[in-house]
């Protein structure tokens, strides 16, 4: 199989953010798919190295985010292995034409889509199913001393969260008191396409 045959890399309206559909090979036994292939990703222009994989399990209405690290910034390749989430990336790169804009996608265990969120973005997700298992690869290690975020419902960003059927938004104490976009001290610079 030639390069790029195993993935459909879809550019979004924000430079550097991709929705990725892996090719799924299924039969009466089940299915097989690659979720990451360095050669294919590099050929598509996604030239990153992952150093840490994480998994979280959350119940319906849990909203994690919007998170970023001020140093040791992390690019993230995210996917859902159980359930359904609405996943969001917010551009925090100074000089970017899309600074403060967001891109969102529904990720499910059924559609098997992945979402690439580059460094210089805030990231978060809302669980839409009764339960969701969320997996993500990171380009740098978690550094709690540089952990930061932006308020999930900041009016300047104006994310259109799909709240139908969500009785209560469940946030961590930290996420309840995040700053708005106007109050952030950000040093991410836009460097153009990968």
UniProtKB/TrEMBL annotation:
GO cellular component: cytosol
EC main group: isomerase
Record keywords: Isomerase
Pathway membership, UniProt: Carbohydrate biosynthesis; dTDP-L-rhamnose biosynthesis
InterPro entries associated with the record: RmlC-like (IPR000888), RmlC-like_jellyroll (IPR014710), RmlC_Cupin_sf (IPR011051)
Entry's EC annotation: 5.1.3.13
Entry's family note: Belongs to the dTDP-4-dehydrorhamnose 3,5-epimerase family.
Record note on quaternary structure: Homodimer.
Protein name stated in the entry: dTDP-4-dehydrorhamnose 3,5-epimerase
Species the sequence originates in: Clostridium estertheticum
